[in-house]
Amino acid sequence: MPLEVKQITGPLVLGEGPHWDDRVQALYFVSIHEKTIHKYNPASGEHTKTTLDGRPGFIVPVESALDQFVVGLEREFVVLQWDGAEGSAVKVVRKIGEVDQEAARNRINDGKADPRGRIFGGTMGYEKSPGDFAQEQGSLYRVDGNITRVADKIGISNGLAWDLSAKAMYYIDSLEQNVRRYDYDVDTGNISNMRHIFNLPKNGLDGFPDGGTIDTDGNLWIAVFSNGVVIQVSPEGKLLRQVPIPAKQVTSCTFGGPNLDILFVTTSRYMNKPGEGDPQDGCTFMVTGLGVKGHPNVNYKF
Q: pTM surpassing 0.85?
């Protein structure tokens, strides 16, 4: 099958946090600055959304309920109830907890469930103006009944993925322009022994690493913001492939579809100045023909 990149939604300001829910064969994602959560059904082409009271940084379904989701909302981890219908009301089922109380202008930017269903979610510093971020103001947290800070001095939290065979967790602070690897204990959720495995400038790449995922061969797929590509990187840090996306501000990606061989990609037009940019900036895309598969996304189980 030849490689194909297809637009599946219209433009959003800042699409982020894609999560494929295998149970309902649908993609969930957020648009941060529009304060919306989204659902896309590839079989029908239906795209629905609803508006929240704050900026969502990620959305992860709850394993025990088809209509409940953990959302990073401003600086809170909350459980929301949404039936997936266009514009329908959202109910806050539970507030798990608030983070970064010492930095009230921070917000949660990205989050995922680990292989056991814990949430890992991180924060970022406030923007003085678009693209001008407060440095080292964010943190990474583990949510498993309790909320535990596991890393600090983060610029922009992004890019979580796990490889249990390698006992590894991958993580990105976008402002470092690096990909981090931690040793990972899946029984406790503890991380240790951080090292950088891939540096964008040293590999001749402009832009900033953003959200990402991992395939069944253990290779990482990383969105590169301000570069218009998704890159495939080996666990040893070798650049394997670049997949062009027709939007420069690529924000995240995840595998989905019935066979988990479709790469869904979110993008942004947030940094565009008036009159600049391309019509597809901020759209969501599906990439087929890559010849690889991903793991099922894990839902929240705690």
A: yes
